[in-house]
Amino acid sequence: MRGIQGFCKTKSAAIIAALFLLGGCVRLVPEGSAPRPVTPPTPPAVKPATAALTGVMRGPVVAGLGFKPDNTAAALQAFATSCPRLTKRTDNSGLTRPEDWAPACAAAATWPAGESARFFTTYFETAEVGDGAAFVTGYFEPEIAGSRTRQPGFDVPVYALPKDLVRAKPGDAQPLPDGKMPLGRYDDAGVFTAYHDRGQIEDGALQGKGLELAWAADPVEFFFLQIQGSGRLRAPDGSVIRLGFAGQNGHAYTGIGSLMRERGLIGSSPGQYSGSMQGIQQYLRDFPDAGRQLMRQNRSYVFFRELTGPGPVGALNVPIAGRSTVAADPAFVPLGAPVWLQVDRKEASGLWVAQDTGGAIQGANRFDSFWGAGPEARQIAGGMSARGRALILLPKGTLARLGQQ
């Protein structure tokens, strides 16, 4: 999802992966038609950063963290929801193995909610990745005006994932730092190239392909729904279409808030706009032409699928919950792991579960907190920017196996 506000957010949910497309590849031509170009040598593979490579230290005992009953009960429920995935998937952080989670997951299925704090003290130990210094933003499930059919006032297309958006075949492009092949498309001549970016899509690159799931009313609201990675469309007749993250065009995510700050548009001085989501949206509405060009600086574009199940779905493909789910970088946090945040925003401090990812949620101790839906969730997520300390809760015995005493 992930989306994100700093964003989502991944969020999922999430969210949303910001993949960096590299330069065009060399196309091989039949012998005799043209000299065969020399393919540059592939640079040696660089191991992507992970929690295991960054360094992990044992943290304080779980019992001393200062749990609150309502918070731990919600975290226990979120953890139990994640267990079917957690005990089967590979942990890209290098910290855990699927079997490490089996005892806690077996107990979580029947553990009394009223004794949730005892559950976490029984089965977990804390770990600090790197220096533990955390930065937390927020995301939510937005609801904006939309319609299944195009009609006056509803003319912003909501696209499904295009079939021609694919990963390059080995040899057709340089791999990304994480070893994956980049996303893009093959043109009519069979050459792998970057996929259409936000500006090209808005100018009609996908028209006539039958990809329209629905139509939104407001391009600014839809831009932020894409950043969040999931949301709801409310039709004039009151019906609701729930949208979930389906994919992304392969272009790197660019936060327009950072661009506005660099240009002196946001800040605390007179004449500047707030750096919150609300402040950024106000600028985009006050200056529609400049705002449209600013949004196009974020070349990343998110595609959706219609959701019919309960709640938005995160990167673990399980429903996520407001005030329980955080998006995290799976290279540094095992997806499904509980996370303890002690930050300078009271509402964001406490126990969360890493169930989502996001394109801008990268690196150790970078989190995006999910707040659910509605005006309050929008307000909190839109202004969330918190710093403090993060601890990952790992199954007891994990740190000893990793060599931590």
TrEMBL record:
- What PROSITE patterns does this protein's entry cite? PROKAR_LIPOPROTEIN
- Record key words, sorted: Cell wall biogenesis/degradation, Lyase
Name a GO CC annotation attached to this entry.
outer membrane
Instruction: Note whether Cell wall biogenesis/degradation occurs among the keywords.
Output: yes
- Tell me if Cell wall biogenesis/degradation is a UniProt keyword of this record: yes
Catalysed reactions, semicolon-separated: Exolytic cleavage of the (1->4)-beta-glycosidic linkage between N-acetylmuramic acid (MurNAc) and N-acetylglucosamine (GlcNAc) residues in peptidoglycan, from either the reducing or the non-reducing ends of the peptidoglycan chains, with concomitant formation of a 1,6-anhydrobond in the MurNAc residue
Recorded GO MF terms: hydrolase activity, hydrolyzing O-glycosyl compounds; peptidoglycan lytic transglycosylase activity
One annotated GO biological process: peptidoglycan turnover
Q: Which Pfam families match?
A: 3D, MltA
Q: Its Enzyme Commission number? A: 4.2.2.n1
Q: Residues in domain Lytic transglycosylase MltA?
A: 143-305
Q: Tell me what this protein is called.
A: peptidoglycan lytic exotransglycosylase
Q: Which organism is it from?
A: Novosphingobium subterraneum
What lineage is on file?
A: Bacteria, Pseudomonadati, Pseudomonadota, Alphaproteobacteria, Sphingomonadales
